[in-house]
Structure of Histidine/lysine/arginine/ornithine transport system permease protein HisM:
Amino acid sequence: MIDLIRDYGRAFLYSDGFQTTGLAITLWLLVVSIGLGFCLSVPLAVARTARRAWLRLPVALFTYVFRGTPLYVQLLLLYTGLYSVQIVRDTEALNAFFRDGMNCTLLAFTLNTCAYTTEIFAGAIRATPHGEIEAGLSYGMSPFTLYRRVILPSALRRALPYYSNEVILMLHATTVAFTATVPDILKIARDANSATYMTFGAFGIAALLYALISFTLVWLFRRAERRWLSYLQPARPR
């Protein structure tokens, strides 16, 4: 039994193609896509709440498309669909980029989480108390300074519980990476199952790894919420 568990562990945590572990690939996909998606979503959320239609409508279309279609379909379109376009093959840089499954996976994950995060942050911006905005304007702040010092810090804090759900869902969504032959946890599990025909053991270890990562992320976000959202908690009676 111990030997079997050790063999499963090696099958899950080692990949010959990338000379790294399936767990590391999953975490890499999650961290990079979430980081890039966050950086893109902040300015897009500001544009999403803008009064000017030429700023607001393109962002609304982007979020509608990527939230309205499955991530699996988006990955297939980027990995196999765009590469079949002649102009992509004829352009050296595009050909090199879309030929790599990891690049296509990261692009699909980044655009998908960016769309959801943009709507989360845009909703938090709209929910900013009007009194905070008036206070900033009374100090003579410009629109840029008002967003930088009042609206965005307040909105990002209040969006933290909803954003934590998006990160957890993005972790679960990384399971489609095997479509682009990326050796994440699930692909290693599928390979282990094909080699040993021990389905429960192979996918059971995969489920355990995903659960451990999820619990760690939940714990980290709960600590962040206690630190940055403590001012929203009701005062305790003395």
The chain has one domain: 2-232. DSSP finds twelve helices and no strands in the chain. The mean pLDDT is 86. The longest helix spans residues 199-228.
